Amino acid sequence: MKKCDICFKDYKGDAGIRIHKSKAHKDEPLGGASTKDKQSKTKTTIQASYGDHQTKDFKFKCKFCDKRTETETGLRIHHGIVHKGITYPEPFSTDEKGSRTKSVQDAHGDNHTDDLQFKCKFCDKTFQTERGLKIHHGRVHQDKDFPGHCYKNSTGSTAATKDPYAKSVAKEELLRSPSVPLDMMVKIDKATVTDQAIDRLSDQLEECKMSKKDSSAASEAMNSFTDSFLTELNKISKLKWFFFNSGSFYDKTRNSPDEFDLMIYPDVQVSVDFDDKSVLGFYKVKMVSTRVPELDGTVTRNDYIRPEAYKTYVFELFDRVLQKIREGRRVTKRVKSRNSPAYTIDYKAIPGKKAIDVDLVPCFKIEGWPPVAKRLDPKWISYDSVVHNAMKSCDVVCKKCPHDHPDNNLLWRLSFAKAEKMLMKHANSSGDSTFKKDAYRFIKLYICNMKDQFPGKIQKFSSYCIKQFIFTEFDNWPKKPTEEVIIQRNILKHLIEGLEERCIPNYFLQNDNVLQFIPTDELNLLCRGMKMEYEKLLGNK
């Protein structure tokens, strides 16, 4: 069966999908929804997407787009997600012909349009306040300088004004949490918690669980592999190599036992040029140790280490190791993008079981907490030693910088893999809730299921993005006991907002947006999937 990537209906083949899209989604490109998806969905599209609602009366029409809903509550939810930068107007119903009821129309007039005087120079969005426009520009048009705003004058034409503080505001304010914090959201969520929603969350929890047998077998196999791999690596190399485990198997949020991440680094001293802040999150790395002949081919005359050369050299070492160790006979090297920092293998460790996906990531360990990162103070971690140890070090990995920069071939990506692991592992330690880690696992499950439904469509959005999002949710966790369904659906609502606005702030680096290089089509697809999960937790499906 094939699934439509716009409304998720099932069809037998590609031909069926094409015919369906030509009729139900004729205003949208065949590859997925356009960037105007949220503004152009008509009643016809709604009926195509939700066949069981076709006979219902969608009488509440959005003031700012063509969206219609059956209830005022539905309209408010739509407005809160899609038009949150605009003051919510009272809804108005429509008569059978689709025009506004006159009494309501007279009451509202067309004043709302006149109030929206701040117009974006790069798209058609208009805002009531200059700050709303600025926030929209840090999230959506971050690659462009803020030009000031356009306002409507009395003749209807537009005039521009420059804001001398725009650039500083864009860097200081725009990547704050984009909406009402989670603890406030759950207080104002008055929607009923239905039996269907409770059952849905319960079923998903069962789906997330790993059997202890499978987990133990995978762990034993990986321990044996790691011992053999590091022993052989230290035989063929004159450097001393170490590793640490990262990823969700080790922070106890694994949904399946078939993925492991290993960060591998040599015992050499390097320094990071944090003074060069031209590309946030990417920095030059310099060799500090006395000359290391083995790495001579990776170092410039100024002692800067070239990430691509270092990765190539270490990958060649990995090749030699796998040819030597006994476990190497059950390993298949996976071909990945040249820009990937990981050497990925499929390790057929357990007969009759799925191959284990292993990412071996060459890196350098950086002692101390980087000055460009925010100081961690999560109230949801009850052990001070955990936070202290999380900030003892960070890493740099060979992730290619996507910006056009004169030193692009020298820039390394700053990584907080160790801190992420420690924070997630102890996320439930404060005692206020045991649901935090499950909430994260549910989001991962949603994404994993979508990847299975749409192979090749979701490639850039990863667990890393989800962690940056969920840590902020943990910071604003409800203080009082709250229904898990209410918490999860409001977490989903926040995630939908982030996907709609193409902005999830990096938890560790201020003003860094982890979604900025993810394709719009991928974000649109994710957004539609999360909306369907949100509807299910409202008990609507």
> Average pLDDT across residues?
78
- CATH architectural label of one domain: 2-Layer Sandwich
Give the C-alpha Rg: 26 Å
Q: Report the count of strand segments.
A: 18
- Helical content stands at 25-40%
What's the CATH first level of one domain? Alpha Beta
**Tally of individual helices:** 18
| CATH topology-level fold name of one domain | Beta Polymerase, domain 2
Verbal overview:
- Strand 1 (2-3) and strand 2 form a beta hairpin.
- Residues 29-56, 91-115 and 149-178 have low confidence and may be disordered.
- The strands form five sheets. Strands 10, 11, 12, 13, 14, 15, 16, 17 and 18 form a nine-stranded mixed beta sheet that branches. This protein has a three-stranded antiparallel beta sheet with strand order 4-3-5.
- It has helices at 14-24, 37-40, 43-49, 72-82, 102-108, 111-115, 130-140, 166-172, 182-188, 195-208, 212-236, 307-324, 384-390, 417-425, 436-453, 463-475, 484-501, 520-537; strands spanning 2-3, 10-11, 60-61, 68-69, 92-93, 118-119, 126-127, 149-152, 158-161, 241-246, 259-266, 270-272, 282-287, 331-333, 343-347, 356-367, 393-397, 411-415.
- Helix content is 39%, strand content 14%.
- The two termini are 21 Å apart.
- The chain is of the alpha+beta class.
- It is globular.
- Helix 17 packs antiparallel against helix 18 (520-537).
- Among the domains are: 211-426, 2-Layer Sandwich (Beta Polymerase, domain 2), CATH 3.30.460.90; 428-540, Poly(a)-polymerase, middle domain (Orthogonal Bundle).
- It contains 18 helices and 18 strands.
- Pfam families: Mab-21.
- Its EC number is 2.7.7.86.
- Residues 60-85, 118-146 form the C2H2-type domain.
- Keywords: ATP-binding, Metal-binding, Nucleotide-binding, Nucleotidyltransferase, Transferase, Zinc, Zinc-finger.
- This is Cyclic GMP-AMP synthase.
